[in-house]
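ESCALATION

Customer reports they have been waiting on this structure for their group meeting. Please prioritize. Original submission:
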Amino acid sequence: MELLKVLGIDTQKEELYMTALTHTSYANEHNVISYERLEYLGDAVLELIISEYLYKTCSKGEGVMTKLRSQYVCENALYEYSLRLKLNDFLLLGHGEAEHGGKFRKTIVADIFESFIGAMYLDKGFSYVKKFIFRHIIPIIESGLVDFFDDYKSMLQEQVQTDKRSLQYIIVSEEGPAHNKVFTIEVRIDGIIYGRGTAHSKKEAEQEAARDALRKSVTKEQS
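Update from on-call: job pushed to the front of the queue and completed.
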């Protein structure tokens, strides 16, 4: 597999990594195993590595380290890691999922990072995975250039409450078939549109709208 060559992974178990990149839609169409079990394993391995990294590099207490860890392994972070490694270029999707943008669907792209780590752990062991994470992922974390925060709605709510303003999320469009809807939502503060978000679920669209609003410095008073 070209991906393994690019990442410098020499293996006799290429099929393990293929499974790590196989979505359930493809697995169902071709009667093969999906990445779900490997994702479960990779999640635990990644959390341990990041926990150890924080324990050794962060002098803060348990609460702060827990919060940082949750940010570094949240869906936004995993999605970013996966894109940086170009894992989604090798993602195996069923026909319908591929046609509807599954290659860039955040949940799927985030999942395959964990499943890929799970496959690597089974193939190479913990020490190898740890070195891989420190080579490819820790520099992303330490760069400070990636937004790891995953709950923009709560942050926006806190800021709006401070000024005692009203906050609403309004669905402005709903497109696509029932099984693959795309929602566009606006966030309005005191009736004024501050942000807009589009995603495959209402929850994620709301988060994107809140994120857009925060980018526009909604805490400033209207002139």
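Sent to customer with the following note: Residues 218-223 have pLDDT under 50 and may be disordered.
Escalation resolved.
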